[in-house]
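Suppose you are handed only two things: the residues of a chain and a line of SMILES describing zinc ion. What would the bound structure be? This form records exactly that question and the answer produced for it, so the two can be stored side by side and reused later without any lookup.

QUESTION INPUTS
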Amino acid sequence: MIGAEGPLIDRCSRAGCTNPASAKVNWRNPRIHTEDRVKIWLACDEHSEFLRDYLASRSFPVLVTGLDQDVSVVPT
Ligand SMILES: [Zn+2]
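ANSWER OUTPUT
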């Protein structure tokens, strides 16, 4: 978050990526998060699959949705 001026554009969470986000990667770490906890990464078209696979490979529950969709629980 830099500055308070101008429209807020959601950017991809992938390190080094400045593309606007087009999806939400909803996830949680079952070892430290309770079931009702949802962590959200933003992702561009290019990286939503990368981020999902990154989390899935760690056996974290993960669900990719559109930006306007809210997830209250990430299904295991
Ligand atoms: Zn990206």
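WHAT STANDS OUT: The CA atoms of residues 30 and 43 lie 22 Å apart. The pocket of zinc ion is lined by residues 12, 14, 17, 19, 43-44, 46-47 (CB under 6 Å).
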